[in-house]
Amino acid sequence: MDKRIxxxxxxxxxxxxxxxxxxxxxxxxxxxxxxxxxxxxxxxxDREIMLSLYRAMTLTRIFDYKAxxxxxxxxxxxxxxxxxxxxxxxxxxxxxxxxxxxxxxYREQAAQLWRGVTITELLQYWGxxxxxxxxAGPREDFPVAVPIGSQATHAVGVATAFxxxxxxxxxxxxxxxxxxxxxxxxESINLAGVWKLPAVFIVINNHWAISLPVExxxxxxxxxxxxxxxxxxxxxxxxxxxxxxxxxCGEAMERARKGDxxxxxxxxxxxxxxxxxxxxxxxxRKDEQISxxxxxxxxxxxxxxxxxxxxxxxEDEEKLIAECKQKIEAxxxxxxxxxxxxxxxxxxxxxxxxxxxxAWQRKKLMGG
Amino acid sequence: xxxFSLPDLGEGLHExxxxxxxxxxxDNVVADQPLVSVETDKAVVEVPSPYSxxxxxxxxxxxxxxxxxxxxxxxxxxxxxxxxxRGTVVGMMPEAETRASDAEQRERVSGARVKAIPAVRALARxxxxxxxxxxxxxPDGMITADDVKRYAHAVAELPAxxxxxxxxxxxxxxxxAHAEIVPASIHDEADVESWIDKGDxxxxxxxxxxxxxxxxxxxxxxxxGQDMTLRMVKNVDLGIAINTDDGLFxxxxxxxEVREDADLRDGLNLLKHDVEARAIPLEEMRGATITLSxxxxxxxxxxxxxxxxxxxxxxxxxxxxxxxxxxxxxxxxVRRTLPLSLTFDHRVATGAEAARFLxxxxxxxxxxxxP
Amino acid sequence: MxxxxxxxxxxxxxxxAMQDDDSVIVFGEDVAKNGGVFRATDGLLDRxxxxxxxxxxxxxxxxxxxxxxxxxxxxxxVAEFQxxxxxxxxxxxxxxxxxxxxxxxxxxxxxPLVFRAPMGAGIRAPEHHSESTETLFAxxxxxxxxxxxxxxxAYGLLLSxxxxxxxxxxxxxTRLYRAQKEEVNDNGHGxxxxxxxxxxxxxxxxxxxWGPTVRETLAAAQTxxxxxxxxEVIDVATIAPIDFDTIxxxxxxxxxxxxxxxAPRHIGPGAEIAATVAERGLLxxxxxxxxxxxxxxxxxxxxxxxxYMPSEKQIVDAARRVVNFS
Lengths: 368, 371, 326
Description:
The complex is a heterotrimer of chains A (368), B (371) and C (326).
Chain A: E1 25-27, H1 47-72, H2 86-94, E2 101-103, H3 109-115, H4 119-126, H5 150-165, E3 171-176, H6 183-194, E4 199-205, E5 208-209, E6 212-213, H7 226-230, E7 234-238, H8 242-258, E8 263-268, H9 287-295, H10 298-308, H11 314-337, H12 356-365
Parallel strand pairs in A: 1-7, 2-3, 3-4, 4-8, 7-8
Antiparallel strand pairs in A: 5-6
Chain B: E1 2-5, E2 15-21, E3 28-29, E4 34-39, E5 44-48, E6 53-58, E7 65-67, E8 71-75, H1 100-103, H2 118-127, H3 145-156, H4 165-180, E9 183-191, H5 201-215, E10 221-224, E11 229-232, E12 238-244, E13 247-253, H6 261-276, E14 290-293, E15 314-318, E16 322-328, E17 331-345, H7 351-365
Parallel strand pairs in B: 12-14, 14-15
Antiparallel strand pairs in B: 1-8, 2-4, 2-7, 3-6, 4-5, 6-8, 9-17, 10-11, 12-13, 15-17, 16-17
Helix pairs in contact in B: 2-3, 5-7
Chain C: E1 3-4, H1 6-20, E2 24-28, H2 44-48, E3 53-55, H3 60-72, E4 76-80, H4 91-98, H5 101-104, E5 114-119, H6 134-138, E6 144-146, H7 151-163, E7 168-173, E8 182-183, E9 197-200, E10 205-209, H8 214-226, E11 231-235, E12 238-240, H9 244-254, E13 257-264, H10 269-280, E14 290-294, H11 305-308, H12 312-323
Parallel strand pairs in C: 2-3, 2-4, 4-5, 5-7, 6-7, 10-11, 10-13, 13-14
Antiparallel strand pairs in C: 1-8, 6-12, 9-11
Helix pairs in contact in C: 1-7, 3-4, 8-12, 9-10
C-alpha cells in the first residue's frame, strides 16, 4: 500500500507543496489455510520453535475454556476470554528476553503464560486475590492495566529507565484498538518518539472495544498510522499469523535494543469470546461475524501447517491436550487449596511501613 | 432437532478417529466454530459446526473410529437459546425482589431533650445529677458545668428518699399516662338538692356513669396507642379510686351496669374494707374500663383535671357537694350541687362524645333520666 | 548558613537529594533549561546534566505514568506539575496506579516517587492557578500528601519525601514561595513525615492548620495573645496520613479547637480532623470545633482573591467565639 496521506486540496494544488507523505505496510506469512506466502523467516522452518509456539497457543486456549467454565461455577470472578487471540500474545512474548519488561491489558493471558506467570497466579488474580499479581516468575513485568491505555505511560517510563542506564532492554506494551483513542496512548507514543525510547507498542486490533467496533473507534484507515503522529514507524500485521507476529515484533524489539527508537505494530485478530463473562456479545454482533472469525483461527492454520511439515500427528495432539488439561487441573487444585486472604492483609502493602493511624485501623479490623 | 453427520473429508477417506471434542452438550455454538478434531491418515483436522445453535447431543468419544456419514452431533432447532441478559459488564448484579421502602421505618421516637455539651454530660453523670432537673443558664437553654455543679451542691443538702410501694407505682403509672394520653376535660354540675339528704351519692354516681357509657360507649373502652386499635367494652368495670394512708388505690367493681343498688353498695363497702385492710387481691385492681374519683369527699374542690390511665380513655371526677348559688326556675337560689369533671383521651373521643356522656350523667343525677 | 526563601530551599533540597542519590531524577514541563516557572529547579540541569534533569512534552498523564515506570525500575523520580490546577489529567495515574502498585503486587513493585506542584491562591494569578484541592489526594489510600509552610520545613520535608519508598504528593504554597526568608542548613537532614509541628505552644485554644494559612494563623495567635488568649498553633504538614496524636494531646490540654485551611470547606481535611477529635477527644472539648476555610465556591479571579482566602480576622473571631462559648 502506498497511499499519500496528505491530500492536497485540488483548488490549491498549484500553490501547495507536499511536505510529508507516509506509508503504512502490511505483513503476513502464514495464511488462514496454513500455507506460507512468499519468503518466510528462518524460524518458520525450525521445528522446535514452531512446535513450542503451537504448544503455548494450545495451552492458552484450553486454559481459557477452563477459566470461563470456572467463572460459570463461581470459582473465579468476572473473566475476559482471549479466545482467538492466542497467536499475538505468544508471538510477541516469545521474542522478548528475560530482561525485557511487559505491559498489558487484561486479555493477554497468552503472553503472560509464556512470560512465566503461572496458571495458579492467573486464577488467583481473576479469582479476586492480589497475590496473583506477585509474579514469582517475571518479577519486573507490570500487572495487567485495567484503565485502558494507562499502561502505555508506564512502558515509556520503564523505557526511559533503560535508556538512562544504557541497557539493551525493551519495554513491550500491548494494548487494544480502543486504547488507541486514549490520551495515554498518544502521549506515550509521542514521548517515545521525541525521546527515542526503546519501546514497542503492539496494538491488538481484535475489532471490538466491548460493543464498539473498530470502524466506529476512529476515522483513520489503519491504527498503525497513529504512529506517524508520534514520528515513529507503524506497521500492520495479520495478528493470527504467528510467523508474522513473531517476526515483526522481533524486528521492532531489535530496533529498540539498538537505540533506534520505538515502533507501533497493529496486529489484526478477532475477539471470538464476549468482552467478559458478564458481557453478552450477541446484543451487539451477529453470529456470522463469529463464524468468519473461526475461519481465520490462529490455531487451526498453525496446526495445518505443522501437519503439512510432518511435524505433528494425532498422537502428538492427543498427548498435548492431555498434558495441558492435566497441568490446568493441577493448577486449579493448587488454587483451590490456597487459604483465602486475611482481611487485615488489606493494610499490609499500602506503604512500606504502615503509618500509626492506619495501624490503629488495622487493629480495629482484627477485633482489637 | 438438526443433526450433523461426519462429512466426507475428501481424499477417499472412509473413517476417522475422534481426537478431541471442542464443545460440550448445552453450549451455544456458531457456524464454523470448531466442533471436533479428528485424525485422518495424514493430519489432525478440525471439523467446524455447520450451524449456529445449541448443542443437544454429541456422539462418540476420543479414540472412537467413526465412518463418514455417522451422526456426530445434534443441535436444537431454531436459533440458539438467548442467554439471559446479566445487565452488567463486570461482577454480578442479580435483581432483587425486596422493596426499598420495607427497610425504612417511620416510627416516631420521642425523647426528652436537654442541651449540654458532652463534657458537661460526663460531669453530670459523675455527680449523679439528672440533667432534666437542672436549670440551664447558658445560651439558648444550654446547661453549663456551673449549672450542674450548683444543682449537685443544692441537692446534696437535702435527703433523697426513693419512692416505694404504692407511691412508686403511682409515680410510674402517672408518667406513663402522661407520655401517652392526650387529655381534655369538660366540667359541669348536677343539681342534687332533691335527693341529697336521702340518697347514696356513690351509688347514684355509678348509675350516672352507666348512663354516660350508654350515651357515649366510646368512653368505656380500651385504646392501644401503638397499633391505634380501640376495643369497645360492653360491660362497665368501674375503677373506684380509694384513698388510704399508704396511698391511692383503684379497685374495680365489675359489671356495674347490671347490678342493683344494694349490690353496688355492698360491693363498695367490701372493696373499701379490703383496700384498707390491704387484703385486696391484684385482679381486683386490674381491668377497669372507666374510673371514678370521688375526690369531693375531702370537702374541697369543684373541678379537677384528672389523669386518664391507659388503656382507659376516660375518668370521672366528682367534687364537693355544697350549697351553691345557682339559677333555678329562672331565679337565683341556693341549691346543693354536685360538680362533675370528665377528663377524656382526645385521641379517641371527641368533645361531643364527652359532652353527651356528661349530659347523660347529669340527667341521671337530676332524675331526668331513668336511673 | 544563608537565609533563603522557600523556593530556594526547595532547590537546595532537590540538589542535595540528587547529589546524595544517583537514582533521583527531576523532570516536568520547563524544569530543565528554564529552571521551572518558579525557578524551583534552577541550576539543576547545569549541575547534574540532561540525563537527570529533563524537559518533558506538555503531557501530564504521561509525566505521571512514566514516573511510575521509572520508580518501579528503581529510580526516584521527582516530577513537577506546573500548577495544582493542571495536575488533574494525572489523577488517573496517581489514583489508579501510583497509589496502589505496591498493594496490588503485594509489594513486588512499588513507587518511590514525588509529584511536586505549586498550590493555593494569593499571587493574583489568572484562572485555574490558585487551587487548593489537596483533599482529592488525601482521600486516596496508599498516597501521602505533604504541604510545607516554611523554607526550613520545605527543605526537610522534601528530602524525606524523596527518600520515602512510597508516592508523595508535595504541594508547595505559591504565596509562600518568596514570602519569607529563613536560615536553612543544607545538611541533608530530612524532617519526619506523618508528623505535626507545634509552631507555638499555648494553653487556651488549639489552632490547627498547614501550608499557606500558617502565616495568618501565627499572626492570629499573636493578636489573641495580646488579649490574653494563649493559642497553640500546630502545622499538620502531612495531610495524609495525619498525626492525630499531637492534635489530640493539644486538645486535651486546651479543650478548644479551630481548624484553618484554604481548601474549600466541604469535606476538606478540616472535616477529618474535626471528626477524629470528636470521636477520640470528645470529653476534652469545652466548645464546638470550628473550621475557618475558604467558602465552597469556585476560586474567584484575583479581584476577589482576598475575600476568598481565610483571613487573620476570621481566625481571631473564630478563636474568640470558641474561647467564650462556655
